[in-house]
Amino acid sequence: MRSRVEITSAVLNCVCIATIIGFGPHISAQELFNPKKLPYDWMSPPILRQRLVALAGDGAMNCGRASQSSLAPADVTECALQQFASKKRFYARYHLEGFDSEQNIGFAFDGQRLYKVTWQLGLTNKPTLDTEECQLPIELWKTRSGRLNCYSHKDELPAIDL
C-alpha cells in the first residue's frame, strides 16, 4: 500500500507533466520569471499597495512600480505628475534595495491630499509601514534620480535622494 507522501508526489508529477505538455513550446522558465513581463506589483509588499489604494480611493490610476528590474522611475513619475497636474487620483511606487535593507516608497493622491507611504525591511527583519501627509501647499516634483518627492526642494540633501 502506498503512503500519502507517495500519492501526493505522484499527483504533483502528473500535474507538472500535464502542464509542460499543455503549454509545450509556448512557455519557458525565463518567460515565467521575467519581471518585465509580470504585472507591476508582482513582488511589491502587498500591504504598501493596499495602503496606497485605500488612500488614493476608488478609480485611482496605478502609475506603476519602478525598480531596477522593471519600469524606470521616470516612467512612473511622469504618470504621477500628469495625474497630479490634472487633480486626478493616482498611486505610484518605487522599490529601492540597499546592502542590508529593502525599501518601497509610494505616493497616493486622493484629488486633494497627497501621502507618502514608506515600507521598510532592515536588519531586524521586522517590516515597518509609515504614512505621512505631504505639507500644504503641496509641491510634488521629480528628484535627480527620477523619483517623486513632496517636500520642498530646499529640504533635499545632496547625498540623499529618495
Structure explained in plain terms:
- Helices cover 30% and strands 25% of the residues.
- With 162 residues, the chain is of the alpha+beta class.
- The chain has 2 domains: 4-33; 42-155.
- The strands form 2 sheets. Strands 1-2-3-4-5 form a 5-stranded mixed beta sheet, with helices on both faces. Strands 6-7 form a two-stranded antiparallel sheet.
- The longest helix is centred in the first third of the chain and has 20 residues, at 4-23.
- The relative contact order is 0.13.
Task: Count up the domains.
Answer: 2
Give the DSSP E fraction (strand runs of 2 or more residues): 15-25%
Largest beta-sheet details: 5 strands, mixed
Strand element count? 7
Mean pLDDT over all positions: 76
Helix content class: 25-40%
Count of DSSP-assigned helices: 4
What radius of gyration results from the CA coordinates? 21 Å
Structural class: alpha+beta
Determine the oligomeric state from the structure: single chain
What is the 3D form? globular
Spans of 5+ residues with little confidence (pLDDT < 50)? 23-35, 38-44, 157-162
Summarize the helix and strand pattern as letters: HHHEHEEEEEE
Quote the distance from N terminus to C terminus.
61 Å
Strand order of the largest sheet: 1-2-3-4-5
Write the layout of secondary structure elements.
Elements: H1 4-23, H2 29-32, H3 46-56, E1 61-66, H4 73-85, E2 90-97, E3 102-109, E4 114-121, E5 128-133, E6 141-142, E7 148-149
Parallel strand pairs: 1-2
Antiparallel strand pairs: 2-3, 3-4, 4-5, 6-7
